[in-house]
Amino acid sequence: MVCLALVFWFLIMNKVFVLLVLLVSSGVFAEWKDSSSVSVELISVWGKTGDALIQTNPKATITDLKCTDNYWLTLDKTDPGFQSIMAMLLAAQMSGKTITVRAEDDGVTKSYCRLARVITHK
Q1: What is the residue extent of each domain of the chain?
Q2: CA-to-CA separations, 79 to 9, 51, 85, 102, in angstroms, rounded
Q3: Do β-strands 32-45 and 99-104 pair in parallel, antiparallel, or remain unpaired?
Q4: What is the per-residue pLDDT across 84-112, written as a single tens digit (0 to 9) for each?
Q5: Number of helices (H) and strands (E), helices first, in the chain?
Q6: What are the start-end ranges of the E strands in the chain?
Q7: CA pair distance 26, 120, nearest whole angstrom
């Protein structure tokens, strides 16, 4: 009886583990494109939400991504790296230095691409 209970418990835990792996890995395969040597052209912040829209020059490379709404990159205030990314964007804009930006597709057609990464250049 104990052996049967252990087998039943193992089967349930195995299914729970598989479901958790699927949930966690669903965002891992997001599509993205890097655009290097771009400057920060414009930063627009909504007062109501604190979210930001960023425009680069030249425009960020987002071809082949579903998020193709006018080449804007969006930065959500609730993103863990918001403060750091915003500081890097402002510093790059003020100094005129170029950066590399990563546009990430959230899978929603005709939405803004999410700004997922910023790399500064010397």
Answers
A1: 1-29, 32-120
A2: 37, 10, 10, 15
A3: antiparallel
A4: 999 999 999 999 999 999 999 877 666 88
A5: 2, 5
A6: 32-45, 52-57, 73-75, 99-104, 113-120
A7: 29
**Tokens 């252990």, residue located:** 6
What pLDDT digit, counting tens, does each position of 14-25 carry?
655 555 444 444
Fold of 32-120: OB fold (Dihydrolipoamide Acetyltransferase, E2P) (2.40.50)
DSSP symbol at 12: H
- What's the Cα-to-Cα distance from 104 to each of 65, 72, 112, rounded to whole Å? 8, 11, 9
pTM score, two decimals? 0.71
Is residue 54 within 8 A of residue 118, CB to CB? The reply is no
